[in-house]
Amino acid sequence: MSYFPEISQIKYEGKETNNLFAFRHYNPEEVVLGKTMKEHLRFAVAYWHTMTQDGSDPFGNPVNERTWFGETPMDTARNRVEAFFEILTKLGVEYFCFHDVDIAPEGDSLEEFFQNLDEITNLIKEKMDETGIKLLWNTANMFSHPRYNNGAASSNNADVFAYAAAQVKKGLDISKKLGGENYVFWGGREGYESLLNTDMALEQDNIARLFKMAIAYGEKIGHKPQFLIEPKPKEPSKHQYDFDAATTMAFIQKYGLDGDFKLNLEANHATLAGHTFEHELNVARNYEALGSIDANQGDLLLGWDTDEFPTNVYDTTFTMYEILENGGIAPGGINFDAKVRRSSHEMEDLLLAHIAGMDTYARGLKAAAKLKETRYLDDLREKRYASYTEGVGKRIVDGEEDLESLTAYAMENQDIRLESGHLEVVKSRLNDLLF
Ligand code: XUL
Ligand code: CO
Predict the structure, then answer these.
(1) How far apart are CA 131 and CA 238, in angstroms?
(2) Is 99 a catalytic residue?
(3) In Å, how far are 24, 112, 157, 236 from 106, measured between CA atoms?
(4) Which member of 25, 49, 99, 279 is catalytic?
(5) Residue 240 neighbours by CB under 8 Å, 6+ apart
(6) Per the annotation, does 266 bind a ligand?
(7) Which SS3 state, helix, strand or coil, does residue 378 take?
(8) Which of 46, 48, 105 has the alpha carbon at shortest distance from 71?
(9) CA 325 to ligand 2 centroid distance, Å
(10) pTM above 0.85?
(11) What is the pLDDT of residue 45?
(12) Which residues does the record give as Mg(2+) 2 binding sites (predicted)?
C-alpha cells in the first residue's frame, strides 16, 4: 500500500523547474570537489518529527493529517514503518534516525516495550534489507516519561538510573541488529532546576558512569557505533549539563571519554546557547570531535527550539564549509531534526519540507566548495596571521621564546600598527562569490 500514491520518486530537475516535487539544487550524483553530493551530504530523516509529531503546541490541539493511524498503537507503529520507508525512498535519502519511543509504544511494562521494539525493528530490518537504507543513529528517549522528571543518569533516584540503563542496553542491542553507524545521547533532562537541592558533582559523575557502561556493553556485544553526545543549553531543563560543544568537550575529557565519544551538533541548539552553528562546528573540529549534525534552523525572534527546516543559504554555506574543512562528516551525517510548521499540516508537506532542506544544503555545499576552490577565506586568513610565519611570531610558535626574551624584543618594537581587517569588504566580496 502507498501512503503517497500521487507522488513519485523526487528527481533533480534544475532550478528552472516548476515542479514542486523536484530538487532544484540537490543532484545526488553530481560531483563536487571530488565526491558526489550524496556522499558529502549523507542526509537522514528523523522518525520523531516526520512520523510521530502531531503538530500540537502548548496552546493548540494536534493538527497533522496522517493516514497511517491504525486501530491500536501497534497497528499505527507498523503502518508508520511502511510510510517512513516510502518517504525515504521517494526522497532518495539513505539514512534515518529514531528514539526508541518513536518507533514502538511503551505499553504497560518494560517487557512489553521491549517486545514491541523487537517486532517493529524486525519490520524495519526487512525494509532496510529491501531498500539498502541505513541507520545513521538511534537513541533512547530518557526525557518524556514522568519518571525522568529529575533526569535519567543524573536523577537523584537510583531506580531511575537503572531504568535508563535498561533502555540504553536495548538501544545498543537494536543498534547492533540494524547496523547503526552512530549512537546518540541527548540529555534533555540531564541538568537541574535549582542548586539548592542538587549535587551537581554526583550527577555528572553518574552520567559518565552510564556512558562508560555503554562503551563496555558495546565492546561485550562486539558492536561499536560512534558514540555521540548532543549538546543543548536548555529546554526542557532550565540548565542542561551538556550546554554547548566546549562544555561537552570538557566533560568528555574530564571523564576520559575521548576516543569513544564525539559530538552531534544541532543548529538550533547552537543559537539557543548564544553561538552560531559554525562556531560550534569549529570548536568540535578543533577537538577532532565533529561527529554528526542535526540540521534545522531556529528563529532568533523566538527564544525556544523551533526546529525549522533549514532554508537559510548563508547558514548552510558556513556549515558545509566547516564540514569540508573537517574532511567530511562520515560516519556521521546530516539529520533533519526539523519539523513542519503547524500550518503545514498536510501529508505532502513532509516531502516538500525535506526537499526544501535538501536543496538548501546542496546550495550550501556548492557555495562552500566555491569558497574552497577560490581560496578566498584561506588566503585571507593566511595573510591575517602572517606574522606567525616568520621572525618573532615563528619563534613563539616554535617554542623558542620566553617572557624575558619577549620583553627584550618588545622594548625594541613598541611602535605597533595594526592593519585594517576591512571586514565590510570581506563580507561584500562573499556576497559577490555566492550570488
Ligand atoms: C531535542 C533534540 C533531540 C535529539 C535526540 O532538542 O534535538 O531530538 O536530537 O534526542
Ligand atoms: Co537534535
Answers:
(1) 42
(2) yes
(3) 41, 7, 21, 21
(4) 99
(5) 187, 188, 190, 191, 231, 232, 233, 234
(6) yes
(7) helix
(8) 105
(9) 22
(10) yes
(11) 99
(12) 266, 269, 305, 307
Cα(141) to ligand 1 centroid in Å equals 9
Residue 328 C-alpha cell reads as 567530511
In 119-203, DSSP assigns E strands to 134-139, 182-185, 191-192
Q: For the chain, what's the residue count?
A: 435
Q: Is 433's pLDDT higher than 90?
A: no
Name which CATH class applies to 11-374: alpha beta
SS (H, E, C) 210-223: HHHHHHHHHHHHCC
- Which of 103, 114, 3 lies closest to 48, judged by CA? 103
Ligand 1 atom index nearest CA of 48: 8
Sketch the domain layout of the chain as residue ranges: 11-374, 389-434
Q: Which residues of 102-135 are buried (b: 16+ CB within 10 A; e: fewer)?
A: bbbbbeeeeeebbebbeebbebbeebbeeeebbb
Alpha-carbon gap, residue 398 to 383, rounded angstroms: 19
**What is the residue-averaged pLDDT of the chain?**
98
Ligand 1, from 48, 296, 304, 337: best to mutate by most atoms within 8 Å of Cβ? 337
Residue type, 221: I
Q: Which atom of ligand 1 is nearest to the CA of 335?
A: 9
Contacts 24+ apart (CB under 8 A), 118-127: 119/74, 120/77, 120/78, 120/81, 121/174, 121/177, 121/178, 123/78, 123/81, 124/81, 124/178, 125/177, 125/178, 127/81, 127/82, 127/85
Residue 307 Cα to ligand 1 midpoint, Å, equals 10
Per-residue confidence at 206, pLDDT binned at 50, 70, 90? very high
Catalytic residue among 100, 102, 242, 349: 102
